[in-house]
Design goal:
Elements: H1 16-38, H2 49-67, E1 71-76, E2 81-86, H3 91-99, E3 102-103, E4 108-114, E5 125-130, E6 139-145, E7 148-154, E8 162-164, H4 170-173
Antiparallel strand pairs: 1-2, 1-5, 2-3, 4-6, 6-7, 7-8
Length: 174
């Protein structure tokens, strides 16, 4: 008969409306979770000095914008010392910052640092600037870690430093 609904076969699967509702819910969850994952630091679980240097770079980029001050990461490749200064420091402040420098251990060393437009030298003192406008100097920090060559790549407009598993020269990046 026309009004008998018992003749309908059992249907399997989901209706289009159910699928759209599930996709909408998952999209909403993803939209709210992406900003949280954007701030995840891949070096956060690393207690190595290389992880500390990478975290310092990431922190200086964020801190420069937050405090509206230009920061400098000072690196002496001959002594292996790394310290932080800012644009507001006078000579006494710079000396105190240099006294607070940490020294890289024997297993980790800085081979050299490359900047665009400069000649590469193996030893010396370098300053990488992190600007309050949210960008930094482009730099490649070449590290040696127990006879393994690594490169920390600092991009001007990216918020995180990149760890490259080889000695990457400036010509390879351009």
């Amino acid at each position: 008969t026309v009004g008998n609904l018992n003749n309908l076969k059992d249907s399997y699967g989901f209706t289009l409306v159910e699928l759209i509702v599930v996709i909408a819910i998952l999209s909403g969850l993803l939209a709210f979770s992406l900003p949280v994952f954007r701030n995840v630091d891949p070096f956060s679980g690393s207690d190595t000095q290389m992880g500390q240097v990478a975290r310092l770079i990431n922190d200086l980029k964020a801190r420069a914008v937050e405090k509206n001050i230009d920061y400098f990461m000072n690196i002496n490749t001959a002594s292996g010392k790394v310290w932080v200064s800012d644009e507001t420091m006078d000579e006494d402040g710079l000396d105190k910052a240099k006294d607070k420098a940490f020294t890289l251990t024997e297993g980790l060393g800085i081979a050299d640092i490359e900047f665009p437009g400069t000649n590469k030298t193996g030893t010396g003192q370098y300053r990488i600037r992190f600007r309050k406008q949210g960008y930094s100097d482009f730099a490649l920090i070449h590290l040696t870690n127990d006879d393994k060559n690594l490169t920390l790549r600092i991009e001007p407009f990216l918020s995180r430093v990149q760890l490259l598993d080889d000695h990457v020269s400036l010509e390879d990046c351009i």
